[in-house]
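Per your request, structure below.
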């Protein structure tokens, strides 16, 4: 029997305008970087996507290289779309990206037009889509002229393969140049996807001001510092955790005891607010008006439920903010 999403799915979620665009994003979005690849049980992935949609999460974030193996997260998401969500395409905001190492040779990495155009065609095929809502350049490229990369993004919008474009992890000065170029091309940059958390605050040093100047929204990723801003590592490294799986970049070595100690102290504050640490970490990035959505990862349905409940308390007193900074 066909799956039917919850009728009340729009009742509990907050939707924020992305910059000065017409597009609203859910305050919590789901990222499929980890736990949705070819090595993960399909039914677990499917259950998380379904539960997220039931909770009002309309935005799902992918990239060409998410897996492992690279490309498999898009394939997984494509299967869920076909099986469960094909009747709901117009209720979804689906993003993907290109910019990191994807295929061998000189045309599968960084920011050439050759790479970006081919990569989006591949992503659309893997997901079984005609277009994505947002296509990002995944990381700055020091060698390709910015005109070429931004020109490729604008071309993809003109071709109808992406509705909006975004950039990710561009530093303020480079972001300013990119946003000006996209504006001149008649394809304003919808969104900047940037790492931002209690532990990593670089966006506050100029980037958010640039985004405001251009009317571009910010979606914050690694809000939970890959799990470090949760209670996940309070009693060692659980076998089913990201650190134990060590599939891409994050491993037990990165579970720094000093950071775990800070997280423990932050957890005490969160408890006083009646929240889990994960909830407080999400609420903390959402306190900034420039941040329209917290983009989080998850390995199980309960984590998504926990995170969405963060929206019940997103206000902070000056005293609480000071205490967080102090830690
Ligand atoms: P997050 O900081 O969102 O951490 C996610 C991890 O935190 C989960 O896998 C889980 O760990 C743990 N977690 C989540 N919710 C809870 C909870 N309620 N309680 C306890 N633990 C919890 O990091 P991500 O790196 O996954 O970033 C999110 C998304 O951002 C990605 O999926 C991707 O879409 C995007 N991203 C973009 C990048 C870019 O360059 N543009 C780079 C990195 C990410 P566990 O698996 O151990 O259970």
């Amino acid at each position: 029997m066909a799956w039917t999403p919850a009728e009340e799915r729009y009742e509990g979620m907050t939707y924020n305008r992305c910059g000065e665009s017409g597009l609203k994003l859910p305050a919590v979005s789901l990222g499929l970087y980890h736990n949705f690849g070819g090595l993960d049980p399909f039914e677990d992935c499917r259950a998380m996507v379904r539960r997220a949609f039931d909770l009002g999460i309309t935005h799902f974030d992918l990239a060409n290289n998410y897996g492992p193996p690279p490309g498999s997260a898009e394939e997984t998401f494509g299967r869920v779309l076909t099986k469960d969500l094909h009747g709901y395409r117009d209720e979804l905001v689906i993003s993907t990206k290109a910019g990191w190492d994807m295929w061998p040779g000189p045309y599968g990495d960084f920011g050439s037009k050759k790479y970006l155009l081919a990569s989006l065609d591949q992503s659309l095929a893997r997901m079984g889509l005609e277009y994505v809502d947002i296509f990002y350049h995944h990381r700055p490229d020091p060698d390709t002229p910015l005109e070429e990369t931004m020109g490729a993004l604008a071309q993809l919008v003109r071709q109808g393969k992406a509705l909006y474009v975004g950039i990710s992890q561009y530093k303020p000065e480079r972001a300013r140049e990119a946003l000006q170029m996209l504006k001149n091309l008649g394809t304003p940059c919808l969104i900047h996807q940037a790492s931002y958390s209690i532990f990593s605050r670089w966006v506050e040093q100029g980037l958010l001001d640039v985004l405001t100047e251009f009317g571009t929204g910010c979606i914050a990723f690694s809000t939970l510092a890959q799990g470090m801003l949760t209670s996940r590592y309070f009693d060692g490294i659980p076998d089913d955790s990201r650190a134990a799986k060590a599939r891409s970049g994050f491993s037990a070595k990165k579970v720094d005891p000093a950071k775990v100690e800070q997280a423990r102290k932050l957890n005490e504050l969160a408890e006083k607010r009646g929240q889990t640490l994960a909830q407080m970490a999400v609420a903390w990035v959402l306190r900034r008006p420039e941040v329209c959505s917290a983009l989080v990862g998850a390995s199980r349905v309960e984590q998504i439920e926990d995170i969405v409940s963060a929206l019940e308390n997103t206000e902070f007193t000056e005293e609480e903010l000071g205490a967080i900074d102090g830690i």
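Strands lie at 15-17, 24-26, 28-31, 59-61, 93-98, 132-137, 162-168, 189-195, 217-221, 291-296.

Regards,
D.
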